[in-house]
Amino acid sequence: MSKTKCCAYVLSKWAKTKVILPNEALAAHIPETRRMTRQGLEMMLDQYRMVYVKPDKGTYGTGVMRVEREDGVLGTIYRFQEGKKERSFYSYDEMYRAIKKRTGRRMYLVQKGIHLLKHKKRRFDLRVMVQMSPSKKWVTTGIIGRLADPKKVVTNVHNGER
Prior knowledge:
alpha+beta; six-stranded antiparallel sheet; three-stranded antiparallel sheet; 4 helices
């Protein structure tokens, strides 16, 4: 008797994104996402002012950084926050080197930032679980609200204590 796999797990966020994007109905709900490069991050910061940099493979929000560009009267300030730690820079190159020090050789993605709603000064999001039923129809099987630590950028509760 042969064993069959019941489930296939795709760990890569990039692979999942590439599968979703050809479907126009779904693609409309996916924030712009690309592989992180020096030029790609700079271009997206210029366009959106706030982006998220996240590992291609990972869970619980570990390694996710909120990256911002703020233009002021004294010049441009770049900052990124990972966990509870925030750092600021007066040059893009300096900030990018600091981010690369954290990411190493691992593949990271850069994604258009979405300003989350807040409840009592804490970010929150809603997550919806959708699964295919035995009759091959997509059904909503769960919805959960997640409330972030007031000092963190992600709503994942297990993303470390930095």
